[in-house]
Amino acid sequence: MSARRALPQARLHFGSGFASNTARSAARTATIRSAPRPSMLAVPAARRSLATSASSAAARQESMFTARNGLFLTAFTATMAGMTAYFLNLQRRKNLVMDALMFQIRTNPTLRAELGDNIDLAGWGWISGEINQMKGLVDIAFDVTGSTGKVATVEVKMQRFPHDPLKWQTVDYFVSTKDKSWNGYVDDDEGQLVLKGGL
């Protein structure tokens, strides 16, 4: 009888041990579940931060590249414009019409008395206006100076004779210094510059 009574007690003892093991397992599970887990939102946020930094750096590089291109384009345009103006002015200076005008000015007694000898273009020798031999039109202005140091501004408008392409008719010829001015014309027979005024 004692052996039979001990058996249920053993079973009860085994049952209590199983229950305690189950309780410990449940406690561990609860501990694992209650432990803080890393947020899944942290990774996308970090990726977004890196993407934003990369896009900002790319935008800065693009703006710097655009600024450099703008400066280069401005410098290139200014250089080309300057070179074009220089060559156009050089063509005007080497024109046969300009050679004839300078000869008339150098041999004019009034201007020789006013400007002195060695009369030539003043400064950089810039000639503004147009010399169009195809259309037979001249409309220019330029400064001349001589040994006296005085500067005279010459404004000339001429047109070519319709039936004689080698002759030019003076439409307007005006010469002025700081304190004097003359109206002039070119004598058709002698080809000399005739000035009137000087007041």
TrEMBL record:
Residue intervals passing through the bilayer: 70-88
CC annotations in GO: mitochondrial inner membrane
Biological process per Gene Ontology, one example term: mitochondrial respiratory chain complex IV assembly
Keywords (A to Z) from UniProt: Membrane, Transmembrane, Transmembrane helix
Presence of keyword Transmembrane: yes
Transmembrane helix found in the keyword field: yes
InterPro entries: Coa1 (IPR014807), Coa1_fungi (IPR042432)
Protein name: Uncharacterized protein
Organism ancestry: Eukaryota, Fungi, Fungi incertae sedis, Blastocladiomycota, Blastocladiomycetes
